[in-house]
Design a protein that fits this description.
Layout (H helix, E strand, L loop, with lengths): L23 H15 L21 H22 L6 H14 L16 H15 L10 H11 L12 H14 L6 H12 L2 E3 L2 E2 L10 H17 L7 H16 L24 H8 L7 H16 L48 H4 L6 H4 L2 E5 L4 E5 L6 E5 L32 E3 L8 H4 L7 E4 L12 E6 L2 E8 L8 E10 L2 E10 L4 E5 L3 E3 L4 E5 L2 E5 L5 E8 L8 E10 L2 E10 L6 E12 L5 H4 L3 E6 L2 E6 L4 E3 L1
Antiparallel strand pairs: 1-2, 3-4, 4-5, 5-6, 7-12, 8-9, 9-10, 10-11, 11-19, 12-18, 13-18, 14-15, 15-16, 16-19, 17-18, 20-21, 21-22
């Protein structure tokens, strides 16, 4: 694919960047285009950027502040990275915005910082941007404006935030107050930093608040803000905490490098995906904090690959704007708190510009991603994930046995409801698998059927059970397992579904032990594939396949326990339900109505850009069930017992 011409990029450099062709100049040009495109939407004093698109639940003024704050972070990376040698109009716009936004008489003043208000999120971006651009903006503001800015930030002092990554917004903002000699609360800062210790689960992983909340917030918030705080506090003011943060980030990046496909796409999982290449924030922070395990050429290859991936697919759009979506506008992948300027948290993906132009990440030759050199298998026990990438097609798949975005289960006896206190299942967390080439079906009309990436009990009226709270059992090597409770309408019983995933080459073999009531059908869905045109679909009695025009194929093959007969496999189609394209399709298997009790079902799940022959795959794995044990034997002679 070609990069959209409106980006006006310099020529590619295939000597320095043999994989992507992109250099620092491409990053600067992209940042400049994105910043210039915002100016038509600025209020007269540049305190707000009121962008087109659906508003958030916080209102138009808060959304306008969001436009200022998040783009200010992008501008700060550009200004500081160039040592101030940028178009003077850029620094002037944001200096003017600071003056107008804190002036109650300006007609475009920012809302005051109050407990748990959206302004707290935006204040943190402003604090970081002011710190990084101090010689060019803060130091040149007149004393009256500085006093008003301090007064606005003072709303944080003693304030209450949501008990998750928001604690860190207070930490960095009050540290900025401390750095300019303004009143602040040391207990607010220490309390926020102490609180995230409760959420550190080891191996470089945090959960975002209580529960099993694993997603990109681990990288672009839980790792990022503590080290941004350390940059503001300085080496003499971090109390020794920064050393621990650097060590944790280094461990995190060892696994995180495997989240990106050969085409630069990040795995499509979790909330706030409209932030897109903000997923690069921890990669750049590893280099900024000198704690990355990645070689300089690999850091740039990974980052440039991701940014170019989106640029080739129309991000930013023809106006130079980031829309609410993934590639095109797609509101089902957003949240109610997402406003038209929310995507500009993607500014975090430009933190690498803070590194000088002669830093090794900009001067070293690009190195290949892990998935470009060999098939990869990565077990991440903390979140309960397996990653597997295939060199021949560059796809990375995430098998999910641990992240559900639900609060922790209340302490209770063995007969307690395993889903007590859990919310609704979220398609960006509840699926068994995600990838760099697919997105879950997430529009409301598709959620009602809930076919893709899900093992469901289906009631006689067609209602599927949901996967809400995930209870991890195992995650090591190429095997992960978990269980969840399934419920059907009018039945108070919670039926246990236990699933083990085994990786072998490009395949995932799923072994399910299922409890079901009489009359229920067991249904298994593969990956949803989506495109601008309707995917090809085909099925047999024990397999189903969907393939896009570009050759991305999703298939499921029955290996054991599926007795659906002629109706045992099919492809579900939908429209306007997938972030990857308006036409989507999901292959699935289904059993005959069950007599009730316990049963075992084994399926083979494929996502590949290679040719897929489902009939042949039936012979690729031999399955033997012996009581509670399932033995899988592969063509190469290897055996796995589940």
């Amino acid at each position: 694919m070609s990069v959209a011409p409106h980006l006006q990029l310099p020529p590619t450099d295939r000597v320095l960047s043999s994989r992507t062709g992109w250099t620092r100049a491409h990053w600067e040009a992209t940042a400049d285009r994105m910043l210039d495109a915002l100016t038509p939407y600025a209020t007269p004093g540049f305190a707000q950027y009121r962008l087109p698109g659906r508003g958030s639940w916080s209102g138009v003024v808060s959304d306008g502040l969001e436009g200022f704050a998040r783009s200010f972070l992008l501008a700060a990376c550009r200004i500081a990275g160039a040592g101030g040698a940028v178009d003077p109009a850029l620094t002037e716009r944001y200096a003017a915005g600071l003056a107008a936004g804190t002036d109650l008489r300006s007609g475009e003043a920012w809302p005051r910082l109050t407990d748990c208000s959206q302004q707290m999120v935006e204040a943190a971006s402003i604090a970081v941007a002011l710190h990084e651009t101090r010689p060019w903006i803060w130091d040149r503001l007149d004393a009256g404006v500085q006093e008003r800015v301090v007064d606005w930030f003072s709303g944080f002092v003693g304030g209450r935030t949501w008990d998750n990554n928001w604690r860190l917004f207070q930490v960095v903002s009050e540290q900025f107050l401390a750095s300019v000699g303004a009143p602040y609360s040391r207990s607010d800062i220490e309390g926020g930093l102490d609180r995230i210790e409760d959420w550190y689960v080891g191996d470089g992983w945090y959960t975002d608040g209580d529960g099993r909340n694993f997603d990109y917030y681990v990288g672009w918030a839980m790792h990022l803000y503590p080290l941004l705080w350390a940059r503001i506090a300085g080496p003499d003011g971090d109390g020794g905490r920064a050393a621990a943060y650097r060590e944790r980030l280094s461990r995190f990046l060892e696994g995180y490098q495997h989240f990106f496909g050969a085409d630069g796409a990040p795995v499509h999982q979790g909330r706030s995906l409209t932030y897109r290449f903000a997923a690069l924030a921890p990669v750049w922070m590893g280099a900024l904090a000198d704690c990355t395990p990645l070689a300089p050429g690999l850091t740039r290859r990974l980052a440039s690959g991701a940014l170019r991936h989106f640029a080739e697919r129309g991000v930013p759009d023809e106006r130079g704007l980031l829309t609410l979506g993934w590639y095109d506008t797609f509101l089902p992948s957003t949240q109610p708190y997402s406003g038209p300027a929310s995507p500009y948290w993607a500014s975090k993906g430009f933190l690498g510009l803070l590194l000088p132009a002669d830093h090794a990440v900009w001067t070293a030759r690009e190195l290949p991603l892990p998935v470009e050199e060999s098939d990869t298998y990565t077990a991440l026990p903390a979140p309960g994930w397996l990653l597997h990438g295939t060199r021949h097609d560059g796809i990375v798949r995430l098998v999910n046995h641990g992240s559900d975005h639900n609060p922790p289960a209340p302490e209770a006896g063995p007969d307690a409801d395993p889903d007590r206190g859990a919310g609704e299942d979220d398609p960006h967390y509840a699926k068994l698998a995600y990838s760099t080439a697919t997105a879950p079906e997430s529009a409301p009309h598709a959620l009602a059927r809930d076919v893709d990436g899900h093992l469901a009990l289906v009631a006689p009226d067609g209602t599927p059970s949901r996967r809400r709270r995930i209870h991890p059992l195992r995650c090591e090597g190429r095997v992960a397992a978990s269980w969840s409770a399934a419920r059907l309408p009018g039945d108070e019983h919670a039926y246990r579904i236990e699933t083990t995933s085994v990786l072998h080459g490009p395949w995932e073999i799923r072994v399910h032990r299922v409890e079901s009531p009489e009359g229920a059908v067991v249904r298994e869905g593969g990956h949803a594939v989506a495109d601008r045109t309707s995917p090809f679909a085909s099925s047999g009695p024990d397999w189903a396949l969907a393939r896009t025009a570009e050759g991305l194929t999703s298939a499921v093959v029955a290996l054991y326990g599926w007795d659906g007969g002629a109706d045992g496999a099919a492809v579900a189609r939908d429209v306007e339900s997938n972030a990857y394209g308006p036409h989507s399709a999901v292959p699935y298997l289904r059993s005959a109505p069950r007599p009730g009790g316990r049963s075992v079902h084994v399926s083979l799940v494929v996502l590949s850009r290679d040719s897929v022959h489902p009939e042949a795959l039936r012979t690729a794995v031999r399955v033997r069930v012996d009581g509670d044990a399932v033995v899988l034997t592969f063509l190469d002679g290897s055996r796995v017992e589940v």
